[in-house]
Specification:
single chain; alpha/beta; Four Helix Bundle (Hemerythrin (Met), subunit A); Rossmann fold; 6-stranded parallel sheet; 45% helix; binds flavin-adenine dinucleotide
């Protein structure tokens, strides 16, 4: 199992360096094409080639962005990495879809004044076929990605189709580029494409073969499954041998339960136990679909595998006098890990927890939270949108009136704001915090879904 140093946010590459490296690889084919010194064609032809060169490099880098490599996502977070992946996918789709329609240069035969056919598109039947396959598949893949949640098949099916569909596009695209591309057929640029395609396919090998093999060598077993609140369970696993993975409070893993890691039925869950308890890992899992609805039936002793830790909703490496924690529903899971670690470490920095639910029966770990409010410097605010008549806590959603009432932003100057829960709640809370004057760099969040 891959292990991780004690400070996740300093393990990743700095975002500026990441962006610079990304831009350098995306623009490299343009530089290489310019260096070839071929006679220039009209603007539309050169523009079309330039779009395709940049878009193909971006497409091949998509594999690295979505491969869950900590060196990429540790600092910026998986959320942002995946959003970047999606944004780039949409842009490159635009580039590649218009690419064939921009050309004005004739396809075979050679022009009389161009005996060496440098100004002619050399498009054989096979490169026409691979170009068309890649072009159509790319559109299909991206449209299916955007509409993923509306599709009638399972997330896992979508994920495998997405990965292997992308590999088919990479191979078809490389063939088309090297066979038909005026610049890409030059040996240096062809070698560049083969190198990037190799890296892209390697990332699939890492995700689908090497990581599961590593997980297989470090199995866990389920030691308890307990109901924690309405439709929510606490699952605890322990390694069959040795210690559990090292992680920081607030991080998450991809968890495989009762299946081989090759089955690709893993799901992301935050670790709700604390790092000090190295002998086991605890998760708080809410029923939300086909897999999570079966958690209550999970047998004690079932095998479990983890890939991680991932995520940057962590405290080490940040110089902060206090923390405001805002959780919606099961979003309290990573926050429990942070609070539990504070308790073990006897950390007496001030904390404010604003924890919102719809119903009282959904509140997780109520008595433990009350205990923590006694032993830590924790200001605990439970908020319900549909409270029972006897409720004496706050009432409402985690909206502007509630947050304005519960937070004194000026008094908490320099504090970190951690927000966890469903995507719509995070987006709205982040907007409100910014409106209330919290600088963006003081807010870190973990969405429990990808857009
Ligand atoms: C970083 C992160 C941390 C999370 N932590 C927790 C937690 O501590 N507790 C908790 O209850 N939930 C957590 N979730 C949400 C949890 O992963 C989903 O509820 C669960 O995967 C749903 O699976 P399902 O098959 O039951 O539901 P489905 O109906 O199959 O899926 C519902 C939606 O969940 C998402 N999803 C499903 N499978 C995956 C997957 N393998 N990878 C990514 N997204 C997927 C998809 O958007 C899907 O549309 C977290 C999610 C993320 C991204």
């Amino acid at each position: 199992m891959r292990d991780q140093g004690r400070n996740p946010i300093s393990n990743g590459v700095h975002p500026v360096l990441l962006l610079t490296g990304y831009a350098a690889v995306a623009l490299a084919p343009l530089g290489l094409a310019y260096a070839e010194g071929l006679p220039p064609r009209g603007f539309r032809d050169e523009f079309s080639s330039a779009l395709a060169l940049v878009a193909f490099a971006m497409l091949l880098m998509e594999f690295v962005l979505s491969g869950r490599f900590r060196v990429v996502s540790s600092r910026i977070g998986i959320d942002l990495t995946m959003r970047f992946h999606q944004l780039i996918a949409r842009s490159l789709m635009g580039f590649i879809l218009i690419h064939p329609f921009l050309y004005t240069t004739p396809i075979n035969p050679a022009l009389p004044w161009d005996a060496s056919r440098q100004l002619t598109l050399g498009l054989s039947a096979t490169s026409f076929a691979t170009g068309t396959i890649g072009w159509v598949l790319l559109g299909v893949l991206i449209v299916l990605g955007i509409g993923r949640d509306q599709l009638p098949y399972r997330y896992e099916t979508w994920r495998v189709l997405h990965g292997f569909g992308a590999a088919a596009i990479a191979i078809a695209g490389a063939h088309h580029a090297i066979d038909a591309g005026r610049y890409s057929s030059q040996p240096t640029i062809a070698a560049f494409w083969l190198f990037l395609v190799g890296i892209a396919l390697l990332t699939l090998l890492v995700v689908y073969v090497i990581t599961p093999l590593r997980q297989l060598r470090h199995p866990y077993r389920v030691i308890s499954v307990e109901k924690a609140a309405l439709k929510t369970w606490t699952v605890v696993i322990e390694p069959l041998r040795g210690q559990a993975i090292r992680f920081e409070a607030g991080q998450f893993v991809w968890l495989t339960l009762d299946r081989t890691p090759f089955a690709i039925t893993e799901h992301p869950f935050s670790i709700s136990s604390c790092p000090a308890e190295r002998s086991r890992l605890g998760f708080t899992i809410k029923q939300a679909g086909d897999f999570t609805n079966t958690i209550g039936e999970l047998g004690i002793g079932s095998r479990a595998y983890v890939d991680g830790p991932h995520g940057n909703v962590t405290l080490p490496g940040r110089d902060i006098p206090g923390v405001v924690l805002i959780a919606g529903g099961v979003g309290v899971a990573p926050i429990m890990s942070i609070l539990r670690e504070f308790r073990v470490q006897r950390d007496l920095r001030p904390l404010i927890l604003i924890y919102g639910n719809r119903l009282a029966e959904q509140i997780l770990y109520r008595s433990e939270l009350d205990d923590m409010a006694r032993v830590l410097r924790l200001d605990l605010h439970l908020v319900l949108s549909e409270p029972p008549p006897t409720w004496d806590g706050s009432v409402g959603r985690l909206d502007k009136p509630v947050l304005t009432k519960l937070l004194d932003i000026e008094a908490n100057d320099g504090w970190l704001y951690i927000v966890c829960g469903p995507a719509p709640m995070i987006d709205s809370v982040e907007d409100i915090l910014e409106e209330l004057g919290v600088p963006m760099h003081r807010i870190v969040s973990e969405k429990f879904s990808y857009d």
